[in-house]
């Protein structure tokens, strides 16, 4: 029964799409075509950052997700606010998106960010990621030289310290990983070598601002507090959505579609430093 449940959990999250091609020619925008179908508002090769929004926003989907489905709501809202929005698919393994080795996925993100910077002429990007997509950029920043290129890292239920198991059952995560041949699932176990190495030393780097947005109802990243990061108050903000919206009972997958969670994303992008949750939820801001 547990194996069947694990299969349901993992397969239910599968999207369609291909991984990032290690493209060159960022100045022409041709690399964007290799990513597949973007969410609305994203991957416009003619978009150039404005003075008000100088950093392009890069959206990074979660495990088994594609950019088109994961950010179908957030991407057009960011575009409407005047941001240049870019997104990628990555980590395809056995036909499943965002399931391959996280180290390789981070290399794909590095190439994508470099191409976005070349295309737009921007000095830095801001990253918004869901689940694995909120954690994997930390490997890119820590081990692949990306820390100087990221202004904000905003994670929606990021698996920063891994998970003890889907729905709290430790064997479900590994069983599901076996069913789907998902290397990234194994690596996101809380006791994995990958997670242990990622969190050795400082969890946050340099002047990058880190905003973590999570929910007490997270049934995938367990416990939900494992999403939180340690670091200076000036650069790190850990937010549990029910502390500010008590009746919002959103869970892991759907937080990426939650307009209340987006308020914290927008606040982090619009101001220096991480999100200020009190400011983000104020009626008049």
UniProtKB/TrEMBL annotation:
Residues 25-53 are annotated as: Disordered. Residues 1-23 form the signal peptide. InterPro entries: AB_hydrolase_fold, Lipase_EstA/Esterase_EstB. Keywords: Signal. PANTHER family: FASTING INDUCED LIPASE, LIPASE. This is Lipase family protein. It comes from Pseudalkalibacillus berkeleyi.
